[in-house]
Amino acid sequence: MLSAQERAHVAQVWHLIAGHEAHFGAELLLRLFTVYPSTKTYFPHLGTCQDQEHLLSHGQRILAAVGVAVQHLDNLCAALSPLADLHGQVLRVDPSNFPLLIQCFHVVLASHLQDEFTVEMQAARDKFLTGVAVVLTEKYR
């Protein structure tokens, strides 16, 4: 799926955001809900303030799952299988939301990392997150 260079870029981006997962995740969700309001239907309990406890908590969970994926690049299917079951069979999240989440994640990364978030990093990150989204939607079939 990813070349050695792409893997290095994915790991590098993860290293840059490590320790700030809750805040990056909360901002990601806020951006998603603002730009794509229909995605908020899955989160009626979440507020609209970035510092709200539930938003930070769910943002942390999202980025923790991304962290698991980063650590299991060779076997995303096995690593994300429980999450795929949850989203596909229990929550029934519309799979069209995953690309929207990816777009918002890139914007959040670019706004915070600025010059550190190179075009090559974005391309690798996009390929990686698209792979994660594919795994998460496999259980929908």
TrEMBL record:
One of its GO terms (molecular function) is oxygen carrier activity. Signal peptide: none annotated. GO terms for cellular component: blood microparticle; haptoglobin-hemoglobin complex; hemoglobin complex. The keyword Heme applies. Keywords: Heme, Iron, Metal-binding, Oxygen transport, Transport. It holds the Pfam family Globin. GO terms for biological process: hydrogen peroxide catabolic process. This is Hemoglobin subunit mu. InterPro entries: Globin (IPR000971), Globin-like_sf (IPR009050), Globin/Proto (IPR012292), Hemoglobin_a-typ (IPR002338), Hemoglobin_oxygen_transport (IPR050056). The keyword Nucleotide-binding does not apply. Residues 1-141 form the Globin domain. Belongs to the globin family.
